[in-house]
Amino acid sequence: MAAQRRVLIVDDDVDFAESLNDMLLAEQYAVRVAHNANDALSAADAFGPQVALLDVRLPMGSGDGVDLLAALKQKRPDLLGIIMTAYADTETAIKALHSDAYDYLRKPLYFQELAATLRRCFERIDLEEKNRQVLAALHDSEERYRSIFENALEGIFRITPSEGFVDVNPALVQMLGYRSADETMALDLPKDLYLDPQDLRTLIDQHKSRKAVRNLEAVWKKKNGDPITVSINSRIIYDTDGRALFYEGMVQDITDRKRSDEKLQHQFRRLAALRAIDLAITTNLDLRLIFNLLLDQALPQLGVDSAAILLLNPHLQILEYAAGRGFWGDSIARSRIPLGEGPAGRAALERRSLHITDPADLAESGQNLAGEGFVSAYVIPLVIKGGVKGVLELLHRAPLAPRPDWKDFAEMVADQAAIAIDNIALFEDLQRSNTNLALAYDTTLEGWSRALDLRDRETEGHTKRVTELTLRLSRAMGLDETELAHIRRGAILHDIGKMAIPDSILLKPAPLTEEEWVIMRRHPVYAYEMLSPIDYLRPALDIPYCHHEKWDGTGYPRQLRGEQIPPAARIFAVVDVWDALRSGRPYRAAWSQDKVLAHIRSLSGTYFDKRAVEQFLKLDL
Predict the structure, then answer these.
(1) Residue 604 forms beta bridges with which residues?
(2) Closest Cα to residue 566, out of 542, 589, 541, 550?
(3) Residue among 41, 528, 307 at smallest CA distance from 32
(4) What are the angstrom distances between the C-alpha of 98 and each of 93, 108, 218, 230?
(5) 10 near 56, Cβ under 8 Å?
(6) What does DSSP say about strands 387-396 and 376-384: parallel, antiparallel, or unpaired?
(7) Which pLDDT band holds residue 168 (cuts at 50, 70, 90)?
(8) Residue 451, pLDDT score
């Protein structure tokens, strides 16, 4: 009856669990819901579920669904578990596959798939119940036993370790592909049935240590030699004196399920490889390193002996070796293949993948593959945004028969390689553009400075000298390279505001009047007004705008004091005074080095930052 079909739902997602509960109730199942391991274990005692739907991820401290299933089965050994998972990671999914779960389902669940899985579960439960009844009936009536034995859907056997099969049912005979029970019972188990005789040894050893063996997997051989994977459940039958007579049990062919599991695991490994490649592409700018990691990840999943990536040289229209794995020699590294020649050249020119099955084509590929032993290959063009970037060659020393899923994975690997090439090309183009733009800016700045020098020949060469010395002093004071770039531009433009000062004042050969000094002291403000609208130069404004400020607040144009003055301006102020006093003017002669140093030392802490002066005096001038 439907009321007897009891299902336990274990999921910490309340909404999802309640939704699943409603669906199953509508299908006439008896349902209990638990949101953690403790509630699930309690329900196992009180509710007695036959099937448990367990989320692989449970709340903190509850373990996971796989571990919970093992605990539930300790309470109810016949319980069938179905793991529900969104496969958040490969390790969890593989753990689910290797657990004692009957099946697994991916979230989000599709009701038809869930209904079919539950139907199979209860069909199995019904079948196992029926088989248990069959085994119990063996003690009551040999006639009844034989009827059920003959008609059972599962394989049933009796064996002794020394004699092999002593009885088999028709289902087992059919499973192994033999014509009769006698032919089957004549098998030498270690030689004719078990692909690995150790599996038989395991069965015997487990029977010695326990009364029954459950779900023991082994690989048997059919009559035609094909392997099948079976699941064995058996027990020891004793005589009235307690002596073991034989092992009696059931066997189920689980070959298809195992193949599905292996296929899924293979897909997980491929996804993990693609993830590793994708991570390398997004976190690395070394194309060779990316190619090497790509080949290391892809080769084990593709099962080929060797692989190489050839990049297109667009100027010469040839394919050149970039990376490779699995080659016996190094001649492949000298590959230079014109477009259209050999498999690689044709794949690139025609922009389509080629499956090479004739070793002669590889011998004439132009890649010096003699002695490598390749007999087949699969060549994929690396195409992105409509352009060919190169080819991925997959070479094998045996015939290669690529399946559709194999081709799909190989094409994905090739796409990843093409993306890596394009990403790095874009980055290099961006770097090149930024470098060119920075050079253009700096050239413009130097042109402005040169124009000012040409206007005021008395200070010609001053800008170059103070720029170089300011950078030396800045490095000595521990400023980083990013700050130095802005300081360099600021030093070049320190007097750019003088472009707005009339010639009558700027070029006056005599000392300036007080009224003329008022105008002259405006040149830092003019510099700020000229440069501040330019985003690129805004970080360099500290020196043009503030290099005439003084530590004691008596400078101009804003009378900044102490550390209100930007560090770059404090450094430059010392250098500017040094160069100005060391250079002659029409109205005064150049000072000696000792006199200038003494003057700068005397102004430490009033006009200049003490730390800047201290470091300046240590320089080799």
Answers:
(1) 608
(2) 542
(3) 41
(4) 9, 22, 15, 15
(5) no
(6) antiparallel
(7) very high
(8) 65
The Cα angle at residue 273 between residues 271 and 278, in degrees rounded to 5: 95
Neighbours of 546 (CB within 10 A): 26
pLDDT-based confidence at 1, cuts 50/70/90?
very low
Omega into 170 within 30° of 0, i.e. cis? no
Phi, psi torsion values for 456, nearest 5 degrees: -115, 85
Strands (E), 314-464: 318-325, 336-338, 354-356, 376-384, 387-396
Residues 6+ apart with CB under 8 A from 9: 17, 20, 21, 24, 31, 32, 33, 34, 52, 53
Cβ atoms of residues 459 and 453 within 8 Å: yes
Name residue 218's beta-bridge partners: 230
CA distance 491 to 483: 12
Contact (CB, 8 A) for 605 and 573? no
What the block records as the tokens of 404 is 């559709």
| Residue type at 322 in one-letter notation | A
Residue 31 in this model has a pLDDT that exceeds 70: yes
> What are the tokens at 125?
């439960």
Task: Please tell me the predicted confidence (pLDDT) of residue 586.
Answer: 67
pTM exceeding the 0.70 threshold for the entire prediction: no
For residue 106, give both structure tokens: 């991916």
Q: From CA 392, how far away is CA 398, in angstroms rounded?
A: 18
Q: What is the DSSP string of 507-532?
A: T-SSPPPHHHHHHHTTHHHHHHHHHT
The token pair at 485 is 């770039």
C-beta separation of 189 from 162 below 8 A: no
Alpha helix positions (H), 351-459: 359-363, 404-455
| Helices then strands, each counted (H, E), the chain | 23, 16
pLDDT tens, 572-591? Answer: 999 999 998 988 776 678 89
Which of the four pLDDT bands, split at 50, 70 and 90, describes residue 552? very high
Query: Which structure tokens are listed for 560?
Result: 């900044």
The answer to whether the CB of 65 falls within 8 A of the CB of 84 is: yes
Residue 363: pLDDT above 50?
Answer: yes
51 bridge partner residues: 7, 80
- DSSP label at 149? H
Q: Which of 560, 554, 557, 545 is nearest to 521 (CA)?
A: 557
DSSP 513: P
Q: Which residues are 338's β-sheet partners?
A: 318
Confidence class of residue 17 from pLDDT cuts 50, 70 and 90?
confident
Strands (E), 135-175: 155-160, 164-168
* Phi, psi angles (nearest 5°) of residue 229: -95, 130
Selected residue with higher pLDDT from 242 and 314: 314
When pLDDT is averaged across residues 99-114 and rounded to a whole number, the result is 83
What's the confidence (pLDDT) of residue 91?
67
CA dihedral of residues 63, 66, 70, 73 (deg, nearest 10): 120
